[in-house]
Amino acid sequence: MSVLSEKQLKYIEQQLRINREALQTHLYGVERAMDGERYVDIAGTVHSQSDESFAELATALSNASLGREAEALHEIEEALHRLATHSYGYCTDCGKPIALERLRSYPTAKRCRPCQLNKENRYGGKDSTPSL
Questions:
Q1: CA 79 and chain centroid, separation
Q2: CA dihedral 101, 103, 107, 110 (to 10 degrees)
């Protein structure tokens, strides 16, 4: 049994579905707009070093933004799966209920606050894979 009422679960599911649809629509639109766009299209064929730097920055920012949006979409899909399997609202690390206030402000939360803080302190908020 969930720590949330049926009404609360339905509301959260509805909000997650709305957010998922908005993200999917946005990502599809960006993908279509960028279809065929290449680095040379941003920088131009004749360019200075500052043009090249700007093109690199614009490309990096665009890729980072798309990455964040794709990750948000993945988190929504995971939350919808937890709703479907009746595990939504419980911490994936310790199994304890996640506070309703946390779920209201962060509906894709998969950890209770103490476990999330522990993860962030241990891994800096990222996975444990070292980077160069």
A1: 11
A2: 140
Residue 26 within a domain: yes
Q: Tally the domains of the chain.
A: 1
Say if 1 falls within a structural domain.
Answer: no
pLDDT at 5 over 90: yes
Q: Which residue has the higher pLDDT, 42 or 116?
A: 116
Is 90 in a helix, a strand, or coil? strand
Residue 28 is predicted with a pLDDT of: 79
- The token duo for 73 is 């979409």
Continuous segment of H or E residues that includes residue 83: helix 49-84
Q: Which pTM does this prediction carry?
A: 0.70
The alpha helices in the chain, defined as continuous H runs, are 6-34, 39-43, 49-84, 100-105, 113-123
Percentage of the chain lying above the pLDDT 70 cut: 65
Q: What angle do CA 84, 14, 81 make, to 5 degrees?
A: 20
Residue 81 sits in a domain of what CATH number?
1.20.120.910
